[in-house]
Specification:
The protein contains 18 helices and no strands. It is mainly alpha-helical. Among the domains are: about 60 residues, Homeodomain-like (Arc Repressor Mutant, subunit A, Orthogonal Bundle), CATH 1.10.10.60; about 160 residues, Tetracycline Repressor, domain 2, CATH 1.10.357.
């Protein structure tokens, strides 16, 4: 159940009753898509929230897909116009780079978290939509990216920010850290202005207490992180593992809705009915995929930071943990990337079942960062929990834009190069 009050689109006196009803329906859809996810929302639920008869919604929209298209479009347009206007205002006032950057961060976060269900619904649902739906909205997303590209390019050419990182991944780093806040920031408890101020400082200056040489480590054997199960030699266990792996890949690449039992069976190479020998329902597969995704990650990062020989000081542990997190997203575990991509779009009851292990992973990072802060390796003026949330947000958002298969091509990073970039930015910040 959605607890926050609905804020329908503002209606002036010139709007007809039909237009006002349509606006209320769109606002209700945005609210449902934002908090419950597109897959879990239904036309009946949207009609209930809009306080109209279920059948009446079809007078305005033929399908949930049409409603989604309008929500996505409105969310992007409003975010684009707000950010564009902010840039015009601050440039007119001739603010310096730091002031402009802070203003842009605050504009994006305020609009995303408090002013618009539409933008938040876009951020949370876009990654797992069918390709044809995403294609329709890419031009406007590209236009918004260009606003940031132009701003960062000018700042780099003027010597305000570091020149050892390309603009495109730098932009993705900044936007990713902000966009991930829809997954965790509670505006009922904390003002967005506090988040904006802390995020600006972290992104610009980094977490390291001293501007040390970036810590970038050579690739490690990914197999060291994963343990074979006791049943690894049994045929049933191998088939079960293949089913889970197939489901994870479908969920990661096409969304939870696409992971039907038939599609999973086809990806596994078995008869559709055979899946039920291993799992009673699709929900059982989802629960296992989600659980493995974070448990694999928890095990991997724990093993990394416990290696005192390879990583003898706290700052090197932070850098190595970043590397391990990235390896699990893109090399080691399809379960981890599947979990990261769809968790925010799942119904609340499903998310609640998997919160304990996610909390355990968060506590591991809190411990890593707290130890580094106590030893003086990272700055003492940063609070650990928001630091961890912003850092993991920037890392996790890479699943939405980074393609490791393109590594080595012109203007594309390899995973190792991307990891090094993230280490530099998180430890040292954007400033030159």
């Amino acid at each position: 159940m959605i607890s926050k009050p609905l804020k329908p689109l503002s209606a002036d006196g010139s709007q007809s009753k039909s237009d006002q009803t349509r606006a209320t329906i769109v606002a209700a859809a945005a609210r449902h898509f934002r908090y419950d996810g597109y897959s879990a929302s239904t036309m009946r639920k949207i009609a209930d929230l809009a306080e109209i008869e279920a059948g009446s919604i079809y007078y305005h929209f033929e399908s949930k897909e049409e409603l989604l298209g309008e929500v996505l479009d409105l969310g992007l347009k409003r975010l684009y116009e707000n950010t564009r206007q902010t840039l015009i205002e601050v440039r007119t006032l001739k603010h310096d780079f730091r002031q402009i950057f802070a203003k842009l961060i605050n504009t994006h976060l305020t609009f995303l978290l408090t002013e618009s269900d539409f933008a938040s619904a876009n951020i949370r649902n876009f990654p797992t939509l069918p390709e044809e739906l995403r294609k329709m909205h890419r031009p406007l997303r590209r236009a918004y990216s260009e606003l940031w590209n132009d701003f960062l390019t000018d700042a780099q050419s003027e010597g305000c920010i570091r020149t050892d990182i390309e603009i495109a991944p730098l932009r993705q780093f900044v936007l990713g850290a902000m966009n991930w806040t829809v997954e965790w920031y509670d505006t009922d408890r904390y003002p967005v202005s506090d988040l904006s101020e802390r995020m600006t400082k972290l992104l610009l200056e980094g977490m390291a207490a001293k501007k040390e040489r970036p810590l970038v480590f050579a690739p490690t054997d990914q197999d060291q992180y994963l343990n074979d199960t006791p049943e690894a030699g049994k045929k049933a266990a191998r088939t079960r593992a293949k089913v889970l792996s197939a489901a994870a890949l479908i969920i990661r690449d096409r969304g939870y809705k696409a992971a039907t039992m038939r599609a999973i069976a086809q990806e596994t190479g078995i008869e559709a009915g055979s899946v039920y020998y291993h799992f009673g329902a699709k929900e059982d597969i989802l629960d296992k995929v989600l659980d493995l995704g974070i448990r694999d990650l928890l095990t991997g990062v724990s093993q990394t930071v416990s290696d005192a020989y390879s990583y003898p000081d706290d700052l090197s542990k932070v850098a190595a943990a970043i590397e391990t997190h990235m390896k699990f997203l893109f090399q080691v575990s399809e379960f981890t990337s599947a979990n990261i991509r769809i968790y925010g779009q799942l119904p609340k009851d499903v998310r609640a079942r998997h919160w304990p292990v996610r909390h355990e992973y968060a506590q591991l990072w809190d411990s890593i960062l707290a130890n580094a802060q106590k030893s003086g390796s990272i700055r003492s003026d940063i609070k650990i929990v928001p630091l961890r949330q912003v850092m993991l947000g920037a890392l996790n958002w890479t699943v939405e834009w980074f393609d490791p298969e393109k590594g080595g091509q012109d203007n594309y990073y390899s995973l190792q190069e991307l990891t090094g970039m993230l280490q530099k930015l998180l430890l040292g910040g954007l400033l030159k």
